[in-house]
Fold this protein.
Amino acid sequence: MPKEIELKLSLPAHCVKHLLHIPLLDNLSISAPPRQKLHTVYYDTPELTLKNQRCALRLRQSGNVWIQTIKTEGSAASGLHERDEWEVPLAGNQLDFSQLSDPVIPKFFSDPALREQLRPIFRTEFTRQIRILQPNKSDQIELCIDRGKIITDHLKEPFAEIELELKTGNPVALFKFALLLAQSFTFPIRLENRSKAERGYSLYTGHQTPPVKAQPIVLTADMDPTEAFVLIARNCLAHLTKNEQGTLAGDDIEYLHQMRVALRRLRSAFDIFSSVLHDPEPLVHELKWLTRQFNPARDWDVFVMEHLSLIQKNFAKHSGILSIRKVCEKLRQSHNKTACYSIRSKRYLELILQLNLWLAELLPYSIQLSAQQRAKTTLKKFTTSLLTERHEHILGVCQKIEELDASSLHALRISIKKQRYAVDFLQTLYSPKAAKQYIKTLSTLQDILGALNDSTTINKLLGEIPKSKANTLTIREAIGIILGWNKQQIRQKKTELKHALPAFCNSLPFWRTHKKYICI
C-alpha cells in the first residue's frame, strides 16, 4: 500500500512566475519541467459519507489518461501530509471499483448501495508544473507548482500552491529543502495544512473546519524520553497549525485561543524534557516570540467578547458602556491583525519548518539507543519524580495562599498549568481514571486563577484606551463601572479559590499511590 508523504505550501498566484526562475530549482533539478493541465472530479454521496469517514475519492484527467484515486486522511500538520493512497488507471471518466483488491482499502467501498449514491461534489481545474529534485544522493523530491481553482455548482476559489512529495529518502529532506525555498523567496508563502479535497468540501458545504483542540497522546512506560518528547511535540504542532486558517479568517476567537494553548503545551513539553534535549534554546526563544505576538490579541478578545459583553447586558442603558465597547473593539481588531501578521510572516514559516526539521533529526537518535540505555532512562522513571516535585511545589505555595499578591497568584497559575499539561501528556503511563480526577482538581484551580489573572489584566487594558477617548464624561463613568464590577469579580473568585483548594490539597498523587503503577 503506497503512503504519500508531501509538504504543501501556499503562495500568492501572481508570484508563481517568480518561483519558476529562482536559481535553487535549476541547481537541484534532474528533469525538465513538464507542464500539465489537470481536471479532477471529487465524488461523494449526498450525505457526504466519504467525508464523514475521512476519505476522498476522485477521478483525475491528464491528457487522455484517467486515474481513479482513493485517499484516507492519515495525518496533516505543519504542512506535512502523510496519507494512504490507492491509484488505478481507467479507460474513461467512469468510476470503476473492480480493481480494488487491496484488503486495506476501506470496506465501505464494497457496498453497492454506497456506490450507487456516489456523484460529483466539486472539481478542481489547474495547471501543474513538475520538477524532480535531487538535493543529495539518497533523497529525491518531486516539486509540483499548482495554479488553478476549486469549483462547486455556484462557487469558485482560486489557489496556488507548491507540493513537495518525497519520492525516495528521508522526510528530513522535505523540511531542509522547504527551508531553503523559504529563504530564497522575497514574497510570502505559508504552510498549507488543508488538502484540495478539504478546501473543496469547505467550499461545497460553506462550513469552515471548527476550532481544533488538543488530541490525546498515547505513551508507553518503556519509551525513551526523547522519543516521547518528539511524539508530544508533533501533537502540539498539529494542534497549533490546524487552527491557523480559522485564526486568519477572524470569525471565531476560539481559533486563536487554541493556537495559544498549543504554544503553551509545546513550551511545557520543552520544559518537561529539557534535560534530555540538545540545544533547544533557539527554538524556545522563537516560541516565546510567537507567544508575545498572540497574547495581547487574546487578552483583548477575552475582555471585549466576554467581560464587556456581560457588563453590557447589565448596564444596557448606559451610553458610556456602548461607547467604550466601540473603542475597545477597534483595539481588539488591531491586536488581532498583529497576531495574523505574525502567522503570515516569514519568521513564523521558518520557525515551524525548523521545529519539524529538528524533531525529524532528533527521533533517529532515540531509536538507535541500546536496550540497556533505554532501560536506564525509561519514560516512567523519568517522569514520576518530575510529577512529584511539581506537585509538592504547588502544595507548598497553596499553604500560604492568603499571603500571595496578584503576581504570586499568576506564578501559581503557571505552575498549575504546567502540571496539568504534564499530566495530560503522561496520563497513559499510569491510571487514566485516577489521572482524570487529579486533572479535574487542577483544572478547577486553573480556571479560577485564570479569571483572577483576567481581572488583573483588565486594569492594564483600560490604560491602553487613548486619552482623547477616555477623558469624555460617559466613558469615564463606564470605566468606573467596569472597575467596580472587576473588584467584585476578584472578591468572588478569591472566595471560590479558598473553597477549591482542599480538593487539590487532599488529592492523591495518582502516579505514586496505586501500587500497580508505582515505578520501582
Notes: The first helix runs from residue 16 to 19.
